[in-house]
Design a protein that fits this description.
alpha+beta; three-stranded antiparallel sheet; 12 strands; 15% strand; globular
């Protein structure tokens, strides 16, 4: 069963062509529940579908697990703390996390910027993560590895590469960033994220822990059987955010609202996009953070063709640069992306675990890069 709607928050009616495009795209995704949501300069269109019958709560109003698509939230948090002068990108993580603790010289050189941009030299996960995770790899691999183990693994690490010399995607590194910011500010990560990102952007349906019964999307294995809600253990900053597709749109719209769209006199992120007005969103530190996370900062890959910002993958398209991040958990997938030059944003979710022939990310990416 499917449904395509122009949401009440829309600044303009949904375009029939956009509704058709989303319906066609959803047909290429095999999952019990699918949500494809597009906003163009504030006009929202959402298509819901999938193989399962819809429940009492519309799919676009259920919180979905973002997995690694949580990292842009961590990046925006760091950028705002830097704009507030509370930390610096070049602060050394070990000095903030455990002042005076003896660590390997390479670990001593790892900065907050290295952790966020996957250039710290740390592996994707700590070496001692796997023995406890493998026995429950398909049910709860992270829950048995709490925050203190993540911190200890970092402090005793022996990175193979000098920080800043190689790019290697690392959930470990971004998790360490979260614990470091909590230590530096004296504020738990969950509270810090709410204060600095979720509350100012009015993301009332976004959180890092499962909500009340009936408010969460249910993930599924490849065979369609349900899986329990994800427990990220000590890796909260790298993958714990849960958000409704509507909140995902609001998060993305904030990134385009300060990028020269809408009112030509606009100087901050509160001046364009549905729901993005109010005193909290005119804070200059939030505007600075939203601008900072859009800025390319490094290149990698063959002939350095892959560009990244602090927290977004950054690719060219026929319609201007696109910034995006995807994520997957044990039973769900998510995609966040936007084109800052044209005001197009795409949020997508699916409630089936990723598999080799999966079309979810390619379909969502195509909506972002192939739509005029």
């Amino acid at each position: 069963m499917t449904d395509t709607t122009a949401l009440p928050e829309s600044a303009a009616p949904a375009e029939p062509a956009t509704a058709r495009l989303l319906a066609e795209a959803a047909g290429r995704i095999d999952a019990p529940d699918v949500v494809l949501a597009v906003s163009r300069n504030g006009a929202r269109t959402v298509h819901t579908g999938g193989g399962a019958a819809p429940g009492p709560v519309p799919r676009e109003r259920l919180a979905h697990e973002l997995g690694s698509a949580s990292k842009p939230y961590a990046g925006l948090l760091l950028a705002r703390l830097v704009a507030q002068g509370r930390v610096r990108y070049e602060d050394r993580a070990a000095d903030l996390l455990a002042p005076g603790f003896p660590v390997h010289p390479t670990v001593r050189r790892i900065t907050l910027r290295h952790l966020l941009t996957h250039t710290s030299g740390l592996p994707g996960l700590p070496a001692d993560f796997y023995p406890q995770a493998v026995p429950r790899w398909s049910t709860d691999p992270y829950g048995g590895y709490p925050a203190d183990r993540v911190v200890r693994a970092f402090l005793r690490a022996r990175p193979r590469h000098r920080p800043g010399t190689r790019w290697h995607y690392s959930n470990f590194a971004v998790s360490v960033l979260g614990h470091t910011l909590a230590a530096a500010t004296g504020t738990p990560w969950e509270v810090l994220l709410h204060q600095q990102v979720l509350a100012p952007l009015r993301l009332d349906a976004s959180r890092v822990r499962p909500g009340p019964e009936g408010t969460e999307a249910v993930g599924h294995r490849r065979d369609g059987t349900p899986v329990p809600a994800l427990d990220t253990g000590g890796f909260t900053a790298a993958g714990a955010v849960r958000a409704t597709p509507l909140d995902m749109l609001t998060f993305l719209e904030a990134h385009t609202a300060g990028a020269g769209l809408g009112d030509p006199e606009s100087t901050g992120p509160g001046l364009a996009g549905p729901g993005l007005t109010g005193p909290g969103l005119t804070d200059p530190t939030l505007a600075a953070a939203l601008a900072e996370v859009r800025r390319p900062v490094l290149r990698r890959g063959l002939r350095h063709t892959h560009t990244h910002t602090l927290t977004w993958f950054h690719h060219p398209s026929p319609y201007g640069p696109v910034l995006f991040h995807a994520g997957a958990t044990l039973g769900q997938q998510a995609f966040l992306g936007f084109r800052p030059d044209s005001g197009l944003v795409v949020a997508a979710t699916a409630t089936r675990r990723v598999h080799r022939a999966d079309t979810f990310v390619a379909t969502a990416y195509g909506l972002l890069t192939e739509t005029p």
